[in-house]
Amino acid sequence: MASSSTKPISTPPFTTTISSSSQPSTRSSLLSFLRNTTPTPISLKLSHSRNSFLNSHPSSSRSLSIKNATKTIESAETSRVSKVGGQDADSQETKPTILVSEKLGEAGLELLRSFGDVDCSYDLSQEDLCKKIASCDALIVRSGTKVTRQVFEAAKGRLKVVGRAGVGIDNVDLQAATELGCLVVNAPTANTVAAAEHGIALLAAMARNVAQADASMKAGKWQRNKYVGVSLVGKTLAVMGFGKVGSEVARRAKGLGMQVIAHDPYAPADRARAIGVELVSFDQAISTADFISLHMPLTPSTEKVFNDDTFSKVKTGARIINVARGGVIDEDALVRALDSGKVAQAALDVFTEEPPPKDSKLVQHERVTVTPHLGASTKEAQEGVAIEIAEAVVGALQGELAATAVNAPMVPAEVLSELAPYVVLAEKLGRLAVQLVAGGSGIKSAKVVYRSSRDPDDLDTRLLRAMITKGIIEPISDSFINLVNADFTAKQKGLRISEERVVVDTSPEFPIHSIQVQLSDVDSKFGSGVSEGGDISIEGRVKYGKPHLTRVGSFSVDVSLEGNLILCRQVDQPGMIGQVGNILGEQNVNVSFMSVGRTVQRRKAIMAIGVDEEPNQETLKKIGEVQAIEEFVFLKL
């Protein structure tokens, strides 16, 4: 692979521009739109087409298929002149119909009414919703309305956008929305201050036993000695998740005289330092804090992350506050921790099941303060959410693609067909890279290097960059990353993505020879994944139509990116494959492939092992105890 030149790719606002003397090739209007080179505003027509890639890769299918892009004549145009029997029919302006199925703030409703016909029909059954939806262009819901596949199919193609007045979209079938060409948007920012204030309210109420003392007095009792509280001044608060809400809680806690530490793998250290917060590892946070406030998303990696093992590590007498997601706490484990005295108190606004059972031991526990998911329940927050979702829905009906969209536009079918295997490769490289980052390291900078023989104008990498961003951010975040919001989300999280093109002498038949992902200024849990330049570095390419890992740090490997992966750095000596294979076989873990890459014979080597199942901790421990293995890491793909 001979490199003849290096060109950076333009990806505003993150990188530099292309230097090229060649004239731009003729591009489709869609690709011009995706590259932000269309000189005039455009509107979008969303089609309902499907393709084989979406069907075969559901995890990568949060996207909309854009049929074409045209110049805007009027931002609110909803009708066109049509031909009937060879004659021009009179065009008639019609307003879009917007169905609001749950209560929305008046300010939001007024904005919607200024644009379309608003139908406020609350408490609809699924049957009634399916009947109404066929005559609606937009639907706005909160958490109570289930927007199922049946609803999307009943719309018969008319429904253009679903707006979720709030953050979570668990009640919307994203896959069905994507397949049937419906944009889904949410309102993720308006609740921030309300949620932070509620967290502080629970913190103070718990510390001073406000709820218990109130109930006692209303029962006719006067128990001053029983409800002696604890002071907040000088106590350490650990903020678990330093995003919008977490950082606002930290600001307020500092004002109460508390010492604040935080854990978040993406939070920039300089942003934390600016408000006097120290970023620490997960274990350090929970073991040193007097109060632990949870602000992490509910993802597969955070589900029940506060379990028996975690509670065993917390400081004795710690107090827990949760205004994030109920599922991050194992509620039975929390009850055990409260009963044992390991956890002194808890204040909870969210629960695994909402509403929780009436006989819930956790809810009824005398040292637990509870509220019925009131984090966003202020007049101001409700109005803010109403306006935010109304603006997003109106923008979508006008053909705009909002940064709050949670499913993505799609590039043309022919471009997607060519990029399909590279899309899978890009996301998996992102997922691998972030799993190599040691806890407590904030990811600030990622660099993507594409090696290709093609001219810069013949390859649009926005989709690939979005998928790498998706792979880096989604595993430990509740963000939904797509082509629309990838750059926006990365910027919001303080992650700078830069891209570089290295022109190589390979066949132009294939769009990309290889993709390399580098993470800078982070610690690695697998030292061999660090390049000579000090960055975590992994590289991959598509072989036989499938993504392969070809380099880890300075070591060459050849690994099909399927299933799960174990990487081991070892002394290069005979019998290593057999030893590790026997350990896995004894635990009924099936090995799909093995590959060994080395720098110098009989010195150091990297062994890459593909496994179908996830080995248990005991199995991984045995691998680590093999004498010639110096380090290893298990990675989920």
From TrEMBL:
What InterPro entries does this protein's entry cite? ACT_dom, D-isomer_2_OHA_DH_cat_dom, D-isomer_DH_CS, D-isomer_DH_CS1, D-isomer_DH_NAD-bd, PGDH, PGDH_ASB_dom
Q: Segment Disordered: which positions?
A: 1-26
Q: Which family does it belong to?
A: Belongs to the D-isomer specific 2-hydroxyacid dehydrogenase family.
Keyword Chloroplast attached: yes
Record domain ACT: where: 565-637
Q: In which pathway does it act?
A: Amino-acid biosynthesis; L-serine biosynthesis; L-serine from 3-phospho-D-glycerate: step 1/3
Q: One GO biological process from the UniProt record?
A: L-serine biosynthetic process
> What is this enzyme's EC?
1.1.1.95
What is the originating organism of this protein?
A: Populus tomentosa (Chinese white poplar)
> Which Pfam families is this protein grouped with?
2-Hacid_dh (PF00389), 2-Hacid_dh_C (PF02826), ACT (PF01842), PGDH_inter (PF19304)
Any one annotated GO CC term: chloroplast stroma
Q: What is this protein called?
A: D-3-phosphoglycerate dehydrogenase
- Reaction(s) this enzyme catalyzes, per UniProt: (2R)-3-phosphoglycerate + NAD(+) = 3-phosphooxypyruvate + NADH + H(+)
Instruction: Give its localization.
Output: Plastid, Chloroplast
Keywords in alphabetical order, please: Amino-acid biosynthesis, Chloroplast, NAD, Oxidoreductase, Plastid, Serine biosynthesis, Transit peptide
Annotated GO molecular function terms are: NAD binding; phosphoglycerate dehydrogenase activity
